[in-house]
Amino acid sequence: MTTEASNNVVLPDDTSLLAFYRDMNVPERRTFWACATGWALDGMDFMIYPLVVGTIIAMWHVDAGMAGLAGTTTLLASAVGGWIAGYMCDRIGRVLTLQITIIWFAVFSLVCAFVQNFEQLLIARTILGLGFGGEWAAGAVLIGETIRPQYRGRAVGSVQSGWAVGWGLAVLTQALLFSIMPAEQAWRWMFAVGVVPALLVFYLRRYVEEPAVAVETRARQKATGDRPAIWEIFSGPMLKTTILASLVTTGCQGGYYAVTFWVPRFLTTERHLSIVSSTGYLAALIIGSFIGYLVGAWLADRIGRRNLFLIFSLGAIALVLLYTQVEFTNQVLWILGFPLGFFASGYFSGMGAFLTELYPTRLRGSGQGFCYNFGRGIGALFPFLVGYLSETTTLANAIAIFAVGAYVLFFVAAYALPETRGRVLTAGA
Known about the structure:
- This protein is mainly α.
- The chain has one domain: Growth Hormone, Chain: A (Up-down Bundle).
- Helix content is 76%, strand content 2%.
- The chain contains 19 helices and two strands.
- The chain has helices at 19-22, 26-60, 64-92, 94-112, 118-146, 152-160, 162-180, 183-193, 200-207, 212-224, 238-260, 263-269, 279-302, 305-325, 330-345, 348-358, 364-379, 381-389, 395-416; strands at 2-6, 9-12.
- Strand 1 and strand 2 (9-12) form a beta hairpin.
- Helix 2 runs antiparallel to helix 9 (200-207).
């Protein structure tokens, strides 16, 4: 049962977290699991590098700024890849684009396992970023258009929780490999595991269908010759939306990367934990992140996308300051990992649905792909800047400065955008 609030907005009667899954049809469930699995494997691939960065620094005598640069170039390339993939979604389809991007980042993760110096690793990670950014763009549009409007926030948000699962898989893989083999070999096997996502393509090809609204829109464009231009999202009334949405994604991703990229290093240096013993601290962060995604998915449909962003950005600011600036014992720091992961991740659950609903169908791939990955590209500077600043101050201070600044931007830009909860997607809009 749903309540129709206006001609183009549908609100749910059943606001429970799992209502969307109980009411799914077969195509919706197949798309849901395909996108959730893809996002989990995407998260695993990305988080491998932050987990092995300490080994890279020690083995090749790379300073923290240069080590952060490899994370930055991956994200910068992902911004380009996401925009290109978003445009491809509008031209060749969501499902085909998703397949291409998954194969791309899986293959180049395997390439990273065979590099012989830091320069080669930097190049391989940068090229990998093109597929990494493209996978989110294609998957987010696909799931956003497949799920009905009254469930979109919870479904897309639950897909987002797959990132925490992938992060957890990366940490477990690290704990296992670094326990059974020397660090000089273990980091290579970490990257080799990143080829696993390629197997998902077989499922996509067989079971996942293109959303009907996208098929209808492309058929109409082909008949009329009215193909969207890649620059159309910067014209007319779309310009303001694109600018503000890009600032929202810059703030939310800049803060997230400033925290998650350097926390493993923070624990092993300033908190003097070993790689293996830090696993429990990262586990608290990851569990908090996973719960945050699920709660954020529920809140996205319950209180709206914008309110979710405002509440969680304020919570993230408070937790970052507590985690990095207050001299707690390691036991207290372990406890704080849960709420830090909760607030520093949960807002992502509303982002995919929010961007899907901001743009008309003919521009959805381009708009969503550009905005999210513009934010990822600018946010990509944060791992490098945190690493660079940590050469002159503590790593804790560097994390706090950039993370808090990013979350303030997130709050302000989100406040300036409209609420989109329950918006109906049509082929003509």
